[in-house]
Amino acid sequence: MATKKVVKKAAEPGDNIKTIGVLTSGGDAPGMNAVIRAVVRTALASGRKVKGIRRGYAGLLEEDIVDMNAKSVADIIQRGGTVLYTARCAEFMTAEGQDKGAAICKKHGIDAIVVIGGDGSFQGARKLAARGINTIGVPGTIDLDIACTDYTVGFDTAINTAMEAIDKVRDTSTSHERCSIIEVMGRHAGYIALWCGIANGAEDILLPERYEEGFEQRIIENIREKRKIGKKHHIIINAEGVGDSYEMAKRIEQATGMETRATIVGHIQRGGSPTCKDRVYASTMGAMAVDLLCKGKTNRLVAYKNGQFCDYDIEEALAMKKDLDEYMVQMSKRLSR
Predict the structure, then answer these.
(1) Is the pTM of this model over 0.85?
(2) Does 111 qualify as catalytic in the annotation?
């Protein structure tokens, strides 16, 4: 009787990855849970195990690591925040902390990690990659300030949350014939302010990237000119990195005689159920991160560029520079007249 010849399957580049870790780091963003869910279920579907690392790099150094399965991520896609929690970790910024982190990964059998966060989180990812831990980054930040990508997880939800809040402030500002300064998040990046300024029809938008001396005087003159033609209220969107909105409101009221109030939208921009876009795009990025690892790729960053999901070398991605769309900036000025 002839024996059946067994054909041995050729080794795939990612076959050495048996267990994938996933963590969220830095500021939380709506849609992070969708990424976590996609990472876990895509990894399980490919025959890998998954370990969740709680509280980012701080949790890694403290070995706050749990096994994850399909049930672990059930009913989380609609939830804001991150079920793995997040934290900042000064120790992981040191070489000793990075060595310790890599050693803990190896101790727990973690061959690769998906890091969900912003630029600072990706700096940590590249340090782990340099120490032999396969890493893929997924951009999760409401600020949209990662240069290599046109989309970051959480931005769409954040601007919709802020837009709805600003609409409500406009209602009372109109009723009381006030000037309202509405402060949105963006210490170094003005994307939320710019998008909301356009969406909410603001008369002035203050952006950290376009900060100029004398901007306050120009706002005062703008208010005076608008009042001459019968404008009874005035909306200013201020990115938090520009300056103290409360003090600015006092100065503007004193100079114009128009009652001026400041409203800080604050951390509600970070929370809440993610929009459809943030759920779908985040899920796609999470699945793609695992697919890249299964192909043997490492030290990469998942991105969305020119209408396509893609990936970049982290070194290349972190070296890129990003600025506001100048056409949008100029358009916002023309539309506010």
Answers:
(1) yes
(2) no
